[in-house]
Structure formats: C-alpha cells, structure tokens
Amino acid sequence: MTYQENKFSDWSIGKDELKAYFKESEFPVLLREFIVSTCTIYRNKAFPDSPIMGIKKGNYAFHHEQIKSTFPNSNFLAIIRHNRAVFSSQKNSIYSRTGIPFQTNPYRAAKARVK
After folding, report:
1. Chain Cα centroid distance, residue 112
2. How far from 11 is each of 5, 18, 33, 91, CA to CA, in Å?
3. Confidence band (pLDDT; 50, 70, 90) for 113?
4. In which region does residue 12 sit, left (phi positive, over 0), alpha (psi from -120 to 50) or beta (all else)?
5. Mean pLDDT along residues 80-105
6. C-alpha 45: how far from chain center
7. How far is it, in rounded angstroms, from Cα 17 to Cα 92?
8. pLDDT grade, residue 48 (50/70/90)?
9. What is d(CA 72, CA 17) in angstroms, rounded to the nearest whole number?
10. Residue 47 above 80 pLDDT?
11. CA geometry: angle 52, 20, 37, nearest 5 deg
12. Could you tell me the CA-to-CA distances from 17 to 50, 54, 74 in Å, in that order?
C-alpha cells in the first residue's frame, strides 16, 4: 500500500530496489528508518556527491514538532519567496497525483499565499 505513493515513481525508486535496501530480518521497518532509507536511495541516485538531503514542502512547517521528534538532528530553513516566483514555479511543476501543474491560475495562487 505504501508503495502506491507517487513519490516512489517520481523518484524512480523501484519496489525491488527498496526491498533490497532492507534485510528480511529487519521487518517491520520503523517509520524513521523507512524515510531515511527512501531518501538515501534517492539522494544516492540523483545527487551521489551530496552529503545531505533536503525536502522542500511548505506545509511540513505545520508538523515541525513531529519532524523534530522523529529526526532530532534535523534543521529547518524558512525561505520566503515572492508570490510571482512561487506561481512561476507552480505552473511549471507537475503534481504527481494528478499529472497537471500545481497551479495555473495566478489569482488563486496569490490568494493562497495570503492565508
């Protein structure tokens, strides 16, 4: 069920590749270890020379306490971008769940940023 999340496809992580990362005796896998392993597989494929990995997603800020308790050594970096830059990025980025851009309406994009 977990593997049905589109992020695995977005990151080109095959089911067998993910299974191979864990030993049979390690199941069930703790959530923290599963997340770290998945991110490590992706980092090793996409950015093999990078010693760190970052995930940008604005609404993760609402869950900072849970993230910090799961990953106590994590650091948070808040970046404020101009609304036009955000919209430009959203109209060119395809949402993996729908296959369409995150946003195509500049008015709605600007209004969403005001909340």
Report:
1. 20
2. 11, 12, 18, 20
3. low
4. left
5. 81
6. 15
7. 29
8. very high
9. 27
10. yes
11. 25
12. 20, 21, 26
Crossing angle of helices 106-114 and 83-92, rounded to 10°: 130
First to last CA, the chain: 33
If you average pLDDT over every residue of the chain, what do you get?
Answer: 79
Single-letter amino acid, residue 73: N
H-state helical runs in 14-98:
15-21, 31-46, 64-70, 83-92
pLDDT digits (tens, 9 = 90+) for 3-39: 666 777 778 888 888 878 777 666 787 888 888 888 8
Structure-token pair, residue 33: 């270890």
Tokens matching residue 31: 């959530």
